[in-house]
């Protein structure tokens, strides 16, 4: 794993320098968009809808669109001026029981590794958290975005889970919730409970499950490779510029005239020597 962020955990008056690592990774089979007939990759370009030209990355800013369609352009300088009080610091705010936090608020998960001088305070916080049976609620800024986070212990390592803000979790607004609930008979409830009991396990073992779609897709790809059913895209065609049709025609006529002139003056082309400049009178 490669560290993606370096900062510290602020725990009261204790500061614990740490490295941050993504705790999860996407195992989906990466498929590209290609031209079906020859396997050439489909490319997307940054194109300005106003000037109708391709825009280099250095000229791209961020914008916020208003309800009337007007655009507020925000530069890097505008964004850099915004206050991020917890920048590079995971600031512990309080401690709560894990069951008090609805998993619906969870976003992404990260491992925290202590920097060499900070192993002792790191272990202190880890062991204290584990003994208390609680988790820490913190605030942190990642990628210019401030967010709540949860610190807990997993496999003897501190794990930080970023959390959604309360207004980012949608309320379930469904019509059936306002209707009179249907009557569930005790026998039906008892049967549902029996089904739950029959499928219950004392612990969750994720290793007994697998991504069957991914495995089947990998098998299809492997079969095509073994059967030589692959396509090698042809070399890229020479880059062409989008030009005005009339201008292209005029340029073509000009080039055609130039190509014809040397043939008419072929004998004169045999002359050699340096052309002399006539003296001024």
Name the features:
281 residues; alpha+beta; 7-stranded mixed barrel; two-stranded antiparallel ribbon; 5 helices; disordered C terminus
Q: What value does the Rg take, in angstroms?
A: 33 Å
Q: Which overall shape is indicated by the principal axes computed on the Cα atoms?
A: extended
* Overall pLDDT level: 83
Q: Give the fraction of residues assigned to helices.
A: 10-25%
The major pleated sheet works out as:
7 strands, mixed, barrel
> For the terminal residues, how far apart are their CA atoms?
82 Å
Strand order of the largest sheet: 1-2-6-9-8-7-5
Residue ranges: pLDDT <50 for 5 or more in a row? 268-281
Task: Give the tally of β-strands.
Answer: 9
Outline the fold blueprint.
Layout: E1 5-11, E2 14-22, E3 62-65, E4 71-74, H1 76-80, E5 89-97, E6 106-114, H2 119-132, E7 134-142, E8 145-154, E9 157-163, H3 186-198, H4 212-226, H5 245-264
Parallel strand pairs: 1-5
Antiparallel strand pairs: 1-2, 2-6, 3-4, 5-7, 6-9, 7-8, 8-9
Could you walk me through the main structural features you see in this protein, from its secondary elements to its overall organization?
Belongs to the prokaryotic Ku family. InterPro entries: DNA_bd_Ku70/Ku80, Prok_Ku, SPOC-like_C_dom_sf. With LigD forms a non-homologous end joining (NHEJ) DNA repair enzyme, which repairs dsDNA breaks with reduced fidelity. Binds linear dsDNA with 5'- and 3'- overhangs but not closed circular dsDNA nor ssDNA. Recruits and stimulates the ligase activity of LigD. A hairpin with a 5-residue loop joins strand 3 and strand 4. The protein has 5 helices and 9 strands. By secondary structure, the protein is an alpha+beta fold. 8% of the residues are buried.
């Amino acid at each position: 794993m490669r560290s993606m962020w370096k900062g510290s955990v602020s725990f009261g008056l204790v500061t614990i320098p740490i490295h941050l690592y993504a705790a999860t990774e996407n195992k989906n089979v990466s498929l590209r968009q290609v031209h079906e007939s020859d396997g050439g990759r489909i490319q997307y370009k940054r194109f300005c809808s106003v000037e109708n030209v391709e825009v280099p990355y250095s000229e791209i800013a961020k914008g916020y669109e208003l309800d009337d369609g007007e655009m507020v352009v925000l530069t890097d300088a505008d964004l850099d001026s915004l206050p991020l009080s917890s920048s590079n610091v995971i600031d512990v705010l309080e401690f709560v029981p894990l069951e008090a936090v609805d998993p619906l608020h969870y976003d992404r998960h990260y491992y925290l590794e202590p920097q060499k001088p900070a192993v002792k305070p790191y272990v202190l916080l880890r062991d204290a958290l584990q003994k208390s049976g609680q988790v820490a609620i913190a605030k942190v800024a990642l990628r210019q975005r401030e967010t709540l986070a949860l610190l807990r212990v997993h496999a003897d390592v501190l794990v930080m889970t970023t959390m959604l803000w309360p207004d980012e979790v949608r309320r379930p607004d469904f019509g059936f919730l306002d209707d009179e609930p249907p009557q569930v008979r005790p026998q039906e409830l008892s049967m549902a409970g029996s089904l739950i009991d029959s499928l219950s396990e004392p612990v969750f073992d994720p290793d007994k499950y697998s991504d069957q779609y991914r495995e089947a897709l990998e098998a299809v790809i492997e079969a095509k490779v073994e059967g030589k059913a692959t396509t090698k895209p042809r070399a890229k065609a020479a880059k062409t510029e989008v030009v005005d049709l009339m201008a292209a025609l005029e340029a073509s006529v000009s080039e055609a005239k130039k190509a014809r002139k040397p043939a008419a003056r072929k004998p004169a082309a045999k002359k050699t020597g340096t052309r002399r400049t006539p003296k001024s009178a």
